[in-house]
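Why does residue order matter? Because the sequence determines the fold. Keep that principle in mind as you read this record.
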Amino acid sequence: AEKLADAVDGFCEGIAFSPEQMARVFDKAKALGLPVKLHADQLSNLHGAALASRYDALSADHLEYTDEEGAAAMAKAGTVATILPGAYYFIRETKKPPLDLFRRHGVKMAVATDSNPGTSPLTSLLLTMNMAATLFGMTVDECLAGVTREAARALGLLDKTGTLEAGKSADLAIWDIERPAELVYRMGFNPLHARIWRGQ
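Structure:
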């Protein structure tokens, strides 16, 4: 009622909350008119991606163990797959998220740091894009869209930001590079020339 929350997030995993517990939380969130998000299928396949999709989740994150049923459900619901290479790297995971399934079913893919002290102490979005490309085989276009347009979609903010269009917040970075691939290719390199935030 006080507009202090814009979404409800959860972690569905053997070491966290069960699908049944998350369903109870999501039922309440939906009753309150709050969209949902879910950290799912990171360490095992509890069908978290499909669960998130049943609630038209904005996004499902991690997804290393998501199966084809989950990918198809995400595509149908419009749930964004948020790829988190920092967590994959830091906990020494060996199973990669099924990007080919997401591509085949037309699932939109965001890319994020998942910055947290426990499993992904990563703060550089540039390094995150490099890791998404080198560890998971994402293309330059997928990485750049993943941290802009699809990231905004995953947050439910695509109508306000994420692309350069009339009527949206003028949030952008101006880079001192020759081609966009440099943002994904180079490591430990920040060629930021200027940042514009809401037109300023």
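The longest helix spans residues 19-31.
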